[in-house]
Amino acid sequence: xxxxxxxxxxxxxxxxxxxxxxxxxxxxxxxxxxxxxxxxxxxxxxxxxxxxxxxxxxxxxxxxxxxxxxxxxxxxxxxxxxxxxxxxxxxxxxxxxxxxxxxxx
Amino acid sequence: xxxxxxxxxxxxxxxxxxxxxxxxxxxxxxxxxxxxxxxxxxxxxxxxxxxxxxxxxxxxxxxxxxxxxxxxxxxxxxxxxxxxxxxxxxxxxxxxxxxxxxxxxxxxxxxxxxxxxxxxxxxxxxxxxxxxxxxxxxxxxxxxxxxxxxxxxxxxxxxxxxxxxxxxxxxxxxxxxxxxxxxxxxxxxxxxxxxxxxxxxxxxxxxxxxxxxxxxxxxxxxxxxxxxxxxx
Lengths: 105, 232
Known about the structure:
The complex is a heterodimer of chains A (105) and B (232).
Chain A: H1 3-23, H2 31-37, H3 40-54, H4 67-82, H5 85-103
Helix pairs in contact in A: 4-5
Chain B: H1 2-15, H2 19-35, H3 40-49, H4 53-64, H5 69-80, H6 82-94, H7 99-107, H8 111-123, H9 131-156, H10 167-176, H11 184-203, H12 209-231
């Protein structure tokens, strides 16, 4: 990792926050664009979430006896009902630890 | 001055409950940065320069996968495109401010600050100092994020690899989507993104799988939006 990469990423991040406030006098994005932009987290986060869960260290799909899948399902169920961010993270982590340290031992 | 201080502290108070999940997120980021072999300076420097949890984690994940700088920067740009929406919503309230204010406020316009200040702006359109709310909320997030990063850096040298803490990256992003699990269209978009990324991880060159997955999923989101508009 180079400092230059970090600095460029910082600039990109800053510009996405700054550009709209700076460029727009009034709200010029139409409803359709706003609706599509509201899907951005749903469109991007799973691309970060899925590969480390479903792929093993060699990069091939691992569905059988994969504690990460079970722990994620459990986290989703807890998240769905509690709507708690921190609850979701801990439910997933604790069930993952139970699976790798107790169940699969 | 009194009014400004009042609005500033309102911003700090409003955003405080949202800081509870930020602390473990920052710690996780610090721990993982150290586990991946970054120096403490780099891990902390990233929190100052980038100041965005999702961007920083993507940076780490792509770095550990050996992605090029160009792909890393583009992916971070994709992750950040949601900020365009925040800026567009806020321009209505902030367009009258001096450039210096816009420069400062843009730095702290993160998800949590957006959420609380947006509510405040909607209800206090006539408050002349309403931007102080965002200032208070934003710099509270900033301070908490830097402190928890440092905590993570310190813990990172003690936490053993066997705990599998890198799994918390997936869990953290999963948790950020919990409000969208109930929306059918969002779930479709999520599945498209996740499946394309998983297949693309080995097949898309240069580790550009996040970009390809995001574009595919946004295309599906656009289609779903258009279909919905036609019905109306």
